[in-house]
Design brief:
The protein is globular, with a radius of gyration of 15 Å. Strand 3 and strand 4 form a beta hairpin. The strands form 3 sheets. A 7-stranded antiparallel beta sheet has the order 1-11-8-13-6-5-2. Strands 7-12-9-10 form a 4-stranded antiparallel beta sheet, with no helix packed on it. A two-stranded antiparallel ribbon has the order 3-4. The chain has a single domain, classed as Jelly Rolls, CATH 2.60.120.620. With about 180 residues, it is an alpha+beta fold. The protein is about 20% helix and about 35% strand.
């Protein structure tokens, strides 16, 4: 299952405001930290992004709007597809020029609670020539590239689709989210 949706609503999700919040305030306040693989390991050869995890008890107004939309989507997926999703986790991700993330699945070692992976793109006026696509590998080993156009929400099954982030020529900003089941 792969779904690509325009998730932006003119009244509630202002991509430009998210982008400013990620790229300036968070970076200036040093809230973005080099991403890790697993619980404690920094692995700059595998991934080159910086992240800031959403803290459910301390969400900003923008984060709360996003969390509410993801929660509504989680409920709809459970209602229509019986997925047994119980919650979600999210973080901002910023890839500086030249940074990427190696091919992988979104399942954590010894924990298969992630069912749905979601990526909400924040970078305005993205051009395909700038790179930065998320490459989804299909069962026949062909692939589908999704370019990070602001307002797009990409959904895919966490344990089924290997994927990678290709390097870009400018900053690439997104919110990554995983909808989880109980294990």
């Amino acid at each position: 299952m792969i779904a690509r949706l325009n998730f932006q609503s003119a009244r509630s999700l202002h991509v430009a405001e998210f982008s400013v919040g990620v790229n300036t305030a968070m970076h200036d306040a040093q809230l973005l930290t080099p991403a890790r693989v697993g619980a404690d390991r920094a692995a700059t050869l595998l991934r080159g992004d910086s992240t800031h995890w959403f803290v459910p008890e301390a969400l900003s107004t923008r984060q709360q709007v996003f969390a509410n939309r993801i929660e509504a989507l989680r409920i709809a997926l459970n209602r229509d597809l019986f997925l047994g999703l119980v919650d979600s986790e999210s973080h901002y991700a910023v890839y500086r020029p030249g940074a990427g993330y190696a091919r992988r699945l979104d399942c954590l070692r010894n924990n298969d609670s992630r069912v749905i992976s979601a990526v909400f793109y924040l970078t305005e006026a993205w051009q395909d020539a700038e790179g930065g696509a998320l490459r989804l590998y299909l069962a026949d080993q062909s692939y589908h590239d999704v370019f990070p156009r602001a307002g797009t929400l990409l959904l895919f099954l966490s344990a089924q689709f290997e994927h990678e982030v290709l390097p870009a020529t400018r900053d690439r900003m997104s919110i990554a989210c995983w909808m989880r089941q109980r294990v």
